[in-house]
Amino acid sequence: MHFQLSEETEMLRAAVRVFAEKELAPFARERDERGVVERKVWEKMAGMGLTAIPLEEQYGGAGGNMLDYAIVLEELAAACPSSAAMLAAHTSFAVWPIRCHANLGRNGKFNSRLAALAEGGSLGGFAAPLNEDTLLAEPDALQGGYRLNGIAHRAINAGTADLVILFVRIHKEGAKQGRLTAFAIEKGRPGFHIIPGAAKIGLKGVSTGSLRFENCRVSAETDQLGRFGQGRAMAVSAAEIGNIGAAAQAVGVARGALSAAVDYSKTRKQFGKPITRQQGIAFKLADMLTQVEAARLLVYQAAWRMSNEMVCAREAAIARKISAQTAIAVTLEAVQLFGGYGYMKEYGVERMLRDAKCLESDFATGGMELASSSSILTGQTE
User: Positive or negative, the Cα torsion across 68, 74, 75, 81?
Assistant: First the structure.
């Protein structure tokens, strides 16, 4: 890949950094404590044109690429990881599946849904109970689709989303194993209820919960993404962009913690001089910077490959793994460097450590841990 970013991408980075520092950073602690990202924050991101970065302009997107998308998420996560995670779930798990798998052009309803998501008028959510049988889909002869009953756990953006992409395992008569199929379901549909989720240790501003369905009807014609049983392939595609998004967020969190540590070290004095002039502290900061830069290059490589329609499952998985480890290591070092202040909410680094740990988990990819150690070794997603 070329290591010189385009002028347009650099301008995008600069604009998003200013936005993040002005609009997101001052209230990041408050969002963490309240456990919610305000709708007005989403509207401001929409006004910036951030709600569909990698989507073509003809569908209402920004016409950017995956590298632009990764850079945007990094900048947002450096200021407010919860806001970045909300955008990542919307783009990776709602916008992208519709763009790649819906019958656009022939199905006007999906075109209008995608346009609303791209413009930010609608916020997308996601639920994928891939390995659970808590949600059942029965054929509905009257509607030409299915009736959903049961619960889908760990839905991202659950309480705030206007539309949710739901993966359902459908068992047809005579089949030993259900076939995974995806649907787009709007909030407020009869039989569709949201159950508030349990409190998380990190990314608290991202609304999570469970989705309960009681004879909720979905149509194979207007709600189903792709063909029956194609959900596994969709999940693989979503996992790749999801890994890139989670990796970019992890780099942003690590960079935010490093920046806080550097600023603090310049003002904290011991033995009559700033601690940055003490060799031990300087070594720590240099190590932290090295880890952030290395992780960022892995993210850029994966995003660049996806932008150029190259196989990227292995690269995305590696970037996700290393970036998550980097975020935890760097934020933990920042907490220790702050000393006793590192454990106080006022200084923010304890929140960054909690957010980093959450990004390491499968929460950051919607519960889809399809990019496992075997995919790193083989370059294929299970």
Answer: positive
